[in-house]
Amino acid sequence: MKVALIGYGKMGRAINSMLASRGHEAIHKFGRSNPPSPELLKAADVAIEFTNPESATANIQMCLEANVPVVVGSTGWHQNLDTIQQTCENKQGAIVHATNFSLGVNLFFKVNEVLANLMAPYED
């Protein structure tokens, strides 16, 4: 699979290592000094976006406009989720986003949900 990495910091470098070990290729590694463009994104099968709240929304929009599915691990941009969802629907695009992709954190979220349901009947 050809992957465009948007955000080549600590997480982008870690993802790049994992991609190579699984037979995938990071065809573009975008960072502050070399921002993504729709033309370059179109060569990718998927984009993985790990940047910051200030640039995430624009990067996601660019991926959707370029008809490139995008996986988003950036946080702090969800106030723009309605706009992103609308663009995704209009372009018949694909997006996967989560506030945290860590297995441990997501297990903790699930444990909290179960615990809250168990505790709900009790006032104290």
Summarize the helices and strands and which ones pair or pack:
Elements: E1 2-6, H1 10-21, E2 25-30, H2 38-41, E3 46-49, H3 53-65, E4 70-72, H4 81-91, E5 95-97, H5 103-119
Parallel strand pairs: 1-2, 1-3, 3-4, 4-5
Molecular structure report:
With 124 residues, this protein is an alpha/beta fold. It has helices spanning 10-21, 38-41, 53-65, 81-91, 103-119, and strands at residues 2-6, 25-30, 46-49, 70-72, 95-97. It has a 5-stranded parallel beta sheet with strand order 2-1-3-4-5, with helices on both faces.
Summarize the structure.
The protein is of the alpha/beta class. Helix content is 46%, strand content 17%. A five-stranded parallel beta sheet has the order 2-1-3-4-5, sandwiched between helices.
The tally of strands reads 5
**Estimated radius of gyration:** 17 Å
Number of helices: 5
Mean pLDDT: 94
Helix content: 40-55%
Poorly predicted sequence stretches spanning 5 or more consecutive residues: none
Could you spell the SSE succession in H and E letters?
EHEHEHEHEH
Largest sheet: 5 strands, parallel
Strand fraction equals 15-25%
Strand order within the widest sheet?
A: 2-1-3-4-5
Shape descriptor reads globular
Distance between the termini: 52 Å
Query: Which structural class do the helices and strands define?
Result: alpha/beta
